[in-house]
Design brief:
The complex is a heterodimer of chains A (265) and B (399). By secondary structure, chain A is α/β, with parallel strands linked by helices. Chain A is built from 7 helices and 15 strands. Chain A is 30% helix and 30% strand. Chain B is built from 10 helices and 22 strands. Classes of the chains: A alpha/beta (265), B alpha/beta (399).
Chain lengths: 265, 399
């Protein structure tokens, strides 16, 4: 079985603000990281691989990402965490991609690997769109299960998974090839292994370009993106209000006044 | 496609240099220079430049005649005949957009046995209610839902499609937009429509620290998922005025590779925290998992739900579906009561757009107080116990 995990490199913190004076982004500690949800996706892929191998099915985990050359670092890190190999979709033609164009490119990468199963995080913490995973399943014709919290059963043809919805868990059976977007509850990611670290050092991470993947340049990057960002700005600043001190019953009485203004109790 | 600096207008203030997340801009003889090998066309510099000296030009043509598209559509998400809470809000917002454009507002419902729901929807201020009734649509599955909505859009050509940013809305609207090769903006908190019909969609990014306004200029429909509890709900009237259209269902669209086997209601939390008007939320400051029982008691008294910080969830005090914040849920209730939560940025990202925030924490310097409308410095468990006591006492007096 071939498993692909899609990851995104995101800023190390979302603690970015716009300086109201200069209207510019103020970024603190801008080291980058792998999108946290994608680490759960990777971990689940590695766990499925281990289950498949235990069942006698040869299985590999390939991680792909679209982004600038420095994303290679993030991909190397995924090898320390159990991925077998990785590839970077990197090309000037991809710059400015919205979720439509990103899913178009990633779908091509997934098809190139010939994946039976794809894992994505439920969303990325910078854009918070949750759209790229579902988008891929149109470009590459995969079945889709979003918000997956458990892979209960899996074989080469189908899987039984739990989806975390607003009111509870939906249990579904889904035919492969399929793409799952996962929530945090699905697992607890492992720490890098020594063997993984050794492997990551020497791993070759190929670069896949627009041309090499045979993509239509008109559908890539800014040009292929139906949406455009018109402006970015600072949200209205929320100022803290009065702070009260005192005995618990005094605080409770004051808090209850506030509560009663807003709901009946 | 190009990004360029208008050299006559650039004054060399370096605002763009600081704004660029890709470090792609440098100064050369007091003029901004953009390294095209690094630029990601994110538009930060365009927004940052007070002199409009940076422009992104896209050589792109509208796909088809955009003027062929008329009307605003709302996806009427339902479960077992019950309308999703966000739908009346979408109707309220859709009505405003339709009135501004002088066009029709329609609600489109997919499901099984929809007649009664159709009657109910017809009482809202909408012009048309499309019902697409088929037993294969009884529960949401991505493939048939995508095919049906995409086919309806192709046929009727609405200019705008709005859906709730629910698990269902987010799961399949992205598929519909991909099929139709049009733009979709996620989790919008503000919508405005221009005279020429261009929809300006505003949404939070970076966990709510940045707002971005997004448009879809070359393709139609313009599609958005909209955050729950942000827009104002439309009111239902006594009589049904909208036209109800039963769309003949097409069996060939119903194939799916998914079988729904079971649904396990989350017994711990009957109330879905995203839908709750009041959330009583706890953090590690509560000390012990048992203390969440007091939060639950208070939440029950206020007809609310219980939330938790990541720290509380990771330490096993509460299950994950309750987690509020960056790796949990984003909520905007009328009232958020944060108990023993210090207020890490990741937590604030999930709750700072609540209407009113009360924070109770021992540490007067906890960052949660910087966003709280009302701060209380004290032991959260003791204060919550007192509130419960006083609520109950008040009930006894008031009968």
């Amino acid at each position: 079985m071939k498993i692909v995990v899609c990851i995104k490199q995101v800023p190390g913190t979302t603690n970015v603000r716009i300086d109201p004076e200069t209207n510019t982004l103020v970024r603190q500690g801008v080291e980058s990281q792998i999108n946290p949800f994608d680490l759960y996706a990777l971990e689940e892929a590695v766990r499925v691989k281990e289950r498949m191998i235990a069942a006698g099915v040869d299985t590999t985990v390939t991680v792909i990402s679209m982004g600038p050359p420095q994303v290679e670092e993030a991909l190397r890190e995924t090898i320390t965490l159990g991925a077998d190999d990785a590839a970077l979709l990197c090309d000037r033609g991809f710059a400015g991609s919205d979720t439509w164009a990103t899913s178009y490119a990633l779908a091509a990468g997934i098809k190139k690997v010939g994946a039976d199963l794809v894992f994505c995080g439920m969303q990325a913490i910078d854009g918070d769109t949750a759209q790229t995973g579902p988008g891929i399943t149109c470009h590459a014709d995969y079945s889709l299960a979003t918000y997956v919290s458990k892979v209960e059963e899996i074989d080469e043809k189908r899987a039984r998974v739990w989806r975390l919805l607003e009111e509870g868990y939906e249990v579904i059976e889904i035919a492969l090839p399929a793409l799952f977007t996962v929530v945090k509850e699905i697992n607890e990611p492992r720490t890098p292994s020594l063997r993984g670290k050794m492997k990551a050092k020497s791993a070759k991470i190929p670069i896949w370009t627009v041309e090499a993947m045979g993509l239509d340049l008109e559908k890539c990057g800014l040009k292929g993106s139906p949406t455009q960002v018109v402006k970015v700005f600072s949200p209205e600043h929320r100022a803290g209000g009065a702070i009260h001190e005192g005995e618990a019953h005094e605080l409770a009485a004051k808090a209850l006044e506030v509560i009663r203004e807003r709901c009946t109790c | 496609m190009a990004i360029k600096v208008i050299t006559d207008t650039c004054i060399g203030c370096k605002a763009c240099v600081r704004s660029c997340p890709a470090n792609a801009i440098s100064m050369d003889e007091k003029l901004a220079v953009i390294d095209l090998n690094l630029c990601t066309y994110c538009g930060s510099c365009v927004s940052a430049c007070k002199f409009a000296a940076i422009v992104i030009e896209i050589d792109k043509q509208a796909q088809g005649d955009l003027a062929d598209y008329h009307g605003i559509w709302v996806f009427g998400e339902q479960n077992d005949g019950e309308l999703a809470g966000v739908v009346p809000e979408l109707i309220g917002e859709g009505r405003k957009l339709a009135d501004k454009r002088g066009c029709e507002l329609s609600v489109v419902v997919l499901g099984e046995n929809l007649a009664q729901l159709g009657e109910e929807l017809a009482k809202y201020p909408v012009d048309k209610v499309y019902l697409y009734d088929h037993h294969e649509l009884a529960r949401f599955r991505p493939e048939p839902y995508t095919r049906v909505l995409a086919q309806l859009v192709r046929k009727h050509k609405p200019e705008v499609v709005l859906a709730g940013a629910t698990t269902t809305g987010r799961s399949f609207l992205a598929k519909v937009a991909t099929e139709l090769y049009t733009g979709l903006t996620a989790d919008c908190t503000g919508l405005e429509i221009a005279e020429d019909g261009l929809l300006l969609q505003t949404r939070p990014a970076f966990g709510g620290n940045i707002m971005a306004t997004i448009q879809c200029p070359y393709t139609r429909p313009q599609m958005s998922t909209v955050r729950h509890k942000v827009m104002q709900s439309a009111e239902k009237s006594e009589t049904a005025t909208a036209e109800i259209i039963n769309v003949p269902a097409d069996d060939s669209l119903m194939k799916s590779k998914i079988d729904i086997k079971d649904f396990i209601a989350d017994l711990e939390s009957k109330v879905n925290i995203v839908d709750a008007d009041v959330i009583v939320s706890g953090g590690r400051g509560l000390g012990a998992a048992e203390n969440f029982a007091y939060l639950k008691e208070l939440a029950d008294l206020l007809d609310g739900a219980v939330g938790a910080s990541r720290a509380a969830v990771d330490s096993g005090m509460m299950p994950y579906p309750h987690q509020v914040g960056q790796t949990g849920k984003t909520v905007c209730p009328k009232l958020y009561i944060a108990c023993g939560i210090s207020g890490a940025v990741q937590h604030l990202a999930g709750m700072q757009s609540s209407d009113c925030i009360i924070a109770i924490n021992k540490d007067p310097n906890a960052p949660i107080f910087s966003v709280a409308d009302f701060g209380f410095v004290g032991d959260a468990v003791e204060v919550v116990k007192e509130i419960i006591k006083q609520v109950k006492a008040g009930r006894n007096i008031g009968g």
